[in-house]
Amino acid sequence: MHAWPASEVPALPGKGRDLRIHDTATGGLVTLDPGPVARIYVCGITPYDATHMGHAATYNAFDLVQRVWLDTKRQVHYVQNVTDVDDPLLERANRDGKDWVELAEGETALFREDMTALRLLPPQHYIGAVEAIPGIVPLVERLRELGAAYDLEGDVYFSVESDSHFGEVSGLDAAAMKLLSAERGGDPERPGKKNPLDPMLWMAAREGEPSWDGGSLGRGRPGWHIECVAIALDHLGMGFDVQGGGSDLAFPHHEMGASHAQALTGEYPFAKAYVHAGMVGLDGAKMSKSKGNLVFVSKLRRAGVDPAAIRLALLAHHYRADWEWTDGVLEEAVERLGRWRAAVSRPDGPPAEALVEEVREALANDLDAPAALAAVDRWAARQAAEGGTDEGAPGVVSRTVDALLGVAL
Fold it and tell me: What CATH number has the domain spanning 305-405?
């Protein structure tokens, strides 16, 4: 599966700062110090509907992570998956009378268009769950051999008790886990499971649903968590730098994935930091496909909204915050974009070297994009009020905003 085109990232003078970021597993800030190549895995979409603002906010956050790393002169090895077979996709295809493959391909193509328009840097490896199945089957078989998995009426489940570190990603107690498991695709009430929290690794073929040859597992399809584990281990290995996604993935998805990988390899940890973006709401509720309370990137683009303004609307909120999308949020972003473009369009301006360092420091401090925007606002206001004599300043500001915030002025 192919990703989307990469926009050029301007090189800035000097060198950026190492990233301090909030790690869900420890509950505090950690300073990431990758080697020459920083490794990041971000969980991708289930393509049964178009890209909404919640998606865009999450992927914008991890785009900032990449840009901070690139500014430290590191390379970035970024992997993202597509859950192109799953119950919600099959249910939507059945509801709409569409072929599930056609639905997944169409929505994935639209997602690529949205990511390109927003100038989000693409992953080096963009892998669909279906294409990963040949690598998933041996992992499930290995877990069964290790005694970390068991059969139940043809399905295969992972035993959470096989990983001594289970629970350390989310920090939740068993009761909270059980509630979230029921809400987020698990089946804690199924009779015969060793532990209500045990997640499915391999679902035996169901009538009318797609299935694949699973070798000794029989025909079926993989569970959600093992898909990402197989892709991450294949392309990044254990102990990669950041596992990322929305805050609703901390449990069960990232918790279960970490335990799968740790049980498979006997190594710890799966990822050095678990980083989670907040939820975007609309009309008082989390924006989600199941609720249908969505603002789509593609719809805004078709209405003539500049993608740079959409990106500024996302950047105006700290990535870990839960926030509400409103018309006012977008209007403020459009106005900010106009002010910034007017400021850099002049032939000279106030010195900008300090601005570069302010933006770097803001982003290195747990991706504080609102503080970075405020720094650019101050420069633009000074430009409007008094101008300046530095002929290179507008270009420096424009390149800084492009390189570190992904916004083309």
Answer: 1.20.120.640
